[in-house]
Each structure stands twice: as C-alpha cells, then as structure tokens.
Amino acid sequence: MKIISVDSSRCQGHGKCYALAPDLLEPGDDLGRAAVISGPIDASDAAKLSQGEAAIGACPEMALSWKDAEA
Amino acid sequence: MSLYTIFDHYKPPIGPDGTPYDYFEALRDEAIETETPIGWSESYGGFWVCTGWLESREIQRNPEKFSSATVTFPSYATPNERPLMFAGQDGEEHMKYRRFVQSQFSPGKAKALGEQMRAVVNELIDGFIGAGRVDIADVFTAEVPARLAALMGGLPVEDAHLYRKWTHAVSQIGVHDPEAVKGEFEELDAYVAERSAEWRSRTGDDYITMVGREELDGAPVDAEDFRDLFLSLIMGAVDNTFYMLSTIFWRLGWDKELRRRLVRRPELIPLSVDEFLRMYSPAYSGRLVKERMEIGGITLEPGQQIVLAHAIENRDPREFPNPDVFIADRSPNRHFALGLGVHRCLGMHILRVEAQVTVEEFVKRIPEWELDPEGAPKWYAGQVGGMMEVPIVFPPGGGHPEADWSPGRPLAAA
Fold first, then answer.
1. What is the mean pLDDT of residues B148-161?
2. Measured distance CA(B74)–CA(B171) in Å, rounded
3. Nearest residue of B to residue A63 by CA position?
C-alpha cells in the first residue's frame, strides 16, 4: 500500500496533478494547491497507480511523491 | 564563436520553417556538447542566457537571489514606468497583489469560464467558417483571449479590439520606442478613469468588480493600482496566449498526422496543450542578479542580467528525451513555459482551459485545414513570441474529418 503525498512547501498550485489524477488529488485552495483525496492505494489498483505516476511526472515543482502506507 | 554571443530574443535567426527553432536547437546542442547551460550574449550591453532546465529551476526557486524587476529585458514601457504588476514585482509587494486577486484565477473559476468560452469560441468560428481562407491569428487566436479578458473583467466584448491594441502597444512597440505609445497609454488611462466610478459601485463576481470593491491594505484600491490591475488583466490574458494559440494552429496546419490524431482522440487535447507549451514556450523571464552565485560552471555577479530562455530550456535533453519531438501525452513533462515557484503564471488554470476549449471546439467544426499555400506565416520574436500571422485554408463550411480535400479545390456540394 502506498499513498500520494504533497509537499506543501513546494506546491505552487500548477494544477497539473489533479487534472491527471482526479481520483487522488483535487484543488485545495484559491491558489490551486493540491489536496490529497485518496487513502492508501493497493498495489493491484493499476488505474490509480498510473494516475499517481502521471501526476508525479507532471509536477514542475517536484512536490509529489509516493509514501509507504500501512495496510 | 559561441551561438550564445549573438543571442537576441528580439532578433533571432529565422529558419526556413519561419521560426527561430533551428537556431534554438543549434544553441541547445552547443550548450550540451560544451556543458555550458548558461552563456554570455553581447546584445544589449551584455547579459547571461540560461538554456539549461536544471539551472533555470535553481534560479526560479531562489527569488531572494534573483529579482524580477527586470523580468522584461529590455524593459517594457509602462504607463507609469513602474514594472509590470505581478511579473515585475518582488517579495512581499508581489505577494500582496497576488493574494488580492488570486481568487479570480482559481481552478474553479477557470472551469466556470471554460463553459462560457465554448460559446465565445463558437460564435467566432461562425464568423469565418464560410470563408475557407483566413488569417486565423487575426480572426480567431487574437480575438479569443481578448474576449476572455472581457469575460473575466465583466467588460464589454465590443472593447476586445482595444485590449488587443493596447497589449500590442506595450509588448511590440513601446519596448523599442516608448514615445510611440504615449497616445495609447493616454487612451488606456482615460478608458479606466471614465469607468472607474461605475466599476467601484457595481455588483458581480468578476475581476474588475472585485478590484473595485475589495480593500487592499485597509483602503480602496487607488487609481494607479486600479489602472495597473486592469492592464495586467488584459496583458495577462492576451499577450502570451495569443502567440501560443497561433503557434498551435500553425503546427496543426502542417502536421496532418497530429491534427488527425487530436480529431480522432480529443481526450488527448488537454495533455497536448502542455506539450505545445513545452515545445513552443512563448515567454522569456528576465532576472536581475542580487547575490553572487555559482551555477552551471559560471559565476553570476550582482547587478548582472540573466534571461531564462524557456523555449530552449524546455528542449533540454537531460530532462526531456527526444526533446524536439511532439509527444501528445508526454510524461513526465515538467516544462517551465508557465514559470515556476512564486512567479508561476497567475492565469495558468484559465490558460489551460482556454487552450483546450479553443482547440476542441475548432477541430469539431473545422477538422481539416492547411497553411495557405499563397500566404506566409509570420513569427514575432520578442519578450514573448510565437506565430502572429497564420494564413490558413479549409473547406468552406468546415468540411468533414479526413475527407479527401486539398486547398484550392472547391468541395462538391454535399
């Protein structure tokens, strides 16, 4: 299980992540900074994992990463 | 001689395709081969040019070491000689104005505007779809963002031509000849002055009403700030976006394979907007060095100017494999077309929706077009740049996807 994580000190609200990963992230404030809406994601959930990969690869601030989560 | 030496964003060598990209690619290749991601140009008294993605990121992430006071270089003429609001501000002053307006640029606002923009885009297409031969930059890609500025500001759409004219005055004329735009600035001043009483008393949730109603530092916005906030709205809407959209229609005009792919798979359009931004980044960002810094093998000294060449940085092969190839769903795609860090483009959510809606609606109505064999696309090079004239031909009425059609041959009445 892993969870997507936003480093709020880096996020500037580009908004590319929630466009690519609408099941994982959403705009969290007027600046458009990302908020996590998904809990831990199972290794078998290919759709969500691929959304997360796309979001991580799109962030120009490199503010997104995977974190290990307890099952 | 290094290709850096002749770098001049206002006068780059233009290649056979009508763009400066042959030169950009050659400069990029030199930078990679010689490991010089930052080099010295002899233009304008001398300045540094950054072509490296990694180095640009480092500079944009350190606003305390790099001032935005010279974000336009040479500086744009402005009505009051203050630097451009937002882009040309630093530190707390920058954040103060940004916080003041940011609710108008939220993702939610962009989404709502997107739906209104579909109607605007279709109305414009109605105006020229019968013609079959137009300069798409003039009738469409300049008009879309100017009308969006009107929508965002709660301003009359009939005034969109003024917003185009004043933006053009600042970004293309005033920078070379400040005297030549004095009349334009007087006209702009009068436009704001005549309307500001009404703007301050009306109701609505648009940008101009918000600026007229909300307090900044505990007081109503003064006349000078109001004029600058108005100018930021129209320039922010029109300047970069016009070039970006025009370049998109130019590329799709000759790249039939890509165009047909987007027609068949419109779900690729949102991602390809980012790939267009990467490949044809319209803007350069200037910075004034405030503290000595070692970067990219050179030493930047306080008082020196550096220009971040996003169009070249975004083709840095150290970050983007096959950087000169358009990959609609490229991932990762961490381009800097819209900047990074505290100065990231304020209107980015709106721009993305706008570009998406514009392309989506256009290819639905006019799926097949080509560059006019009797016309010549014209590139504008400057602080922001891109295609500014894109003569195209298409089947009058719009035609059908992948129909066997060639320019100049009238369609059989269907």
1. 97
2. 11
3. B341
